[in-house]
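Hi R.,

Here's the chain you asked about this morning:
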Amino acid sequence: MMHHFKFIAVMIILLALPGCGLQDTMLYYPSSSRPSPEFLSARHLRFWPAGDTDCRGFISTIPNGHANGTIIVFHGNAGTAAERDYYVQALAPLGYRVILAEYPGYGARTGKPGEASFVNDARSVLRLAFEQSEKPVFLLGESLGCGVAAAVVKDTTVPIGGIILITPWDTLLSVAKGKFPWLPVRLFLRDTYDTAGNLRSFQGPIAVIGAGHDEVIPVRHAQELYQSLSGTKKMWMITGAGHNDWPDRMDPSWWREIMEFVRGIKKA
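And here is the predicted structure, written out as tokens:
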């Protein structure tokens, strides 16, 4: 019993030490891979807003003409933006330009992962997209990216047509407490990603999509977030889907219904 107590005490001390980096180790899983021109071309993508030496992500090359609007995607905590080309395959056929935003420290981008750097960069991405791409502009968050999108919404003056949140959480603290109920997680969380709090005053359409068998972020966090929203909202549940396989269970009719909701299109 004494050895067990000592182990817990040491863990608490290590978790509370500033700069120990444990939060980042547990939260961020960046990949440094750079997509080839052939990879991008096959997936109807190009570097955005400029070439591969000065890019903030990728933009779809379809539709070829004028689009119904622009959707900025903020991806989850692992991999790279280019690997989220399934959003292009789903949303471009509906007439939307898709921007896959890349985070600092991910892919070929320099910088250090973290909430402050992600959100500051995302604000710049939103401004550039609003200036350069078709309007209206919508934000789509995936997992951790929901927290990024929500933080951007809280402070931006750029008009946002609507928000789509896929496998979101209410707050990072709530998720951490659920994962580690025996640890004082508040002591070592530098980043908050308070999705619920940051969306409190947003009155535009918010679509929340939960995965019924989410093994990473239990779906109750998406449900708690949805209940906290006071504006125009609608929730979809992907029955039987996990945190990473939900795209395989989304057919075109789902995406069409979600986009009609966030655009405010009422069915006849």
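One quick note: The two ends are 67 Å apart (CA to CA).

Cheers,
M.
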